[in-house]
Amino acid sequence: LGRRYLPLAGSGLAALTRETAQAEPEQFAAFFRSQAHLYRTWQEEAAAGYGWIPRRYLIAIKTASDLYNWTARVLQKNPQLVWRRKVKPSVIRVLWTALGNLFYIPRPPCTLAGEVPA
Fold first, then answer.
1. How far is C-alpha 2 from the chain's CA centre?
2. Boundaries of every domain in the chain
3. pTM, whole model, 2 decimals?
4. Which of 92, 60, 93 is closest to 74 using CA atoms?
């Protein structure tokens, strides 16, 4: 369908294709890292709201978030990997992350005034 959801303006890339990424690996890596940085910024802001999410949903949401963060870290080390294979966590990593999140206690949510509700 030719859809592209990431803006290329200022990246130095003509297109977001395998050929362009291989022809200009440094520009592609810089583009990927800038998008990963933007993702991390949004993710940190979203994680600040974990205290508002009911526990029964929080475990799944935090596990998914942790695994997306893992994927971003792997791809940030080698952005060209995205063209070679599917990057996804193993079943053991998924289960281990979910188990760890069973014991996760989020910070209490703050009101707009910065106070912790009673």
1. 23
2. 18-101
3. 0.80
4. 93
Listed range (51-60, 65-74, 89-98, 99-108) with the worst mean pLDDT: 99-108
SS3 helix, strand, coil % of the chain, rounded to 5?
A: 60, 0, 40
Contact between residue 101 and residue 59 where contact means Cβ atoms under 8 Å apart? yes
Contacting residues for 15 by C-beta, under 8 A, at least 6 apart:
8
Residues 22 and 82: their CA atoms lie apart, in Å, by 11
- Mean pLDDT value across residues 42-56: 91
Residue 73 has pLDDT above 80, yes or no: yes
- Helical axes 25-47 vs 55-77, angle rounded to 10°: 160
Residue 39 CA to residue 1 CA, distance in Å, equals: 24
Residue 15 has pLDDT above 70, yes or no: yes
